[in-house]
Amino acid sequence: MSTQPLTDQARSYLEREQADLRHQLSELRPGTEGYDNNFADSSQVTAERGEAEALAAKLEEALAEVDNALEKLDAGTYGVCEECGKEIAPARLEAKPEARLCIDCASKR
Fold first, then answer.
1. Assuming Cys at both sites, which of 5, 78, 86, 102 could form a disulfide with 72, CB separation 3.0 to 4.6 Å?
2. Where are the domains of the chain?
3. pTM for this structure?
């Protein structure tokens, strides 16, 4: 069975996800500059800024995972476990196209 349809699907999904994550980050970044430091409730401003920074960190981490998967597709190494070198099951890649590890190696972490 050819894995080409799976990798084509993965590439399509990953490229859409990459664009979406970049868009979310671009929308979030300008918002962090709009906090009013003279606002009476500075603790609320600090909390909101912290939440925005935490969200940005999660988005950047997700983007790095997507970028890595796209690089693997380009290099022809997509779907190979980074830990044991075995093929990652197609069902796992369908569920999580950016997966770096097979289910066995992922469950050991």
1. 78
2. 4-77
3. 0.80
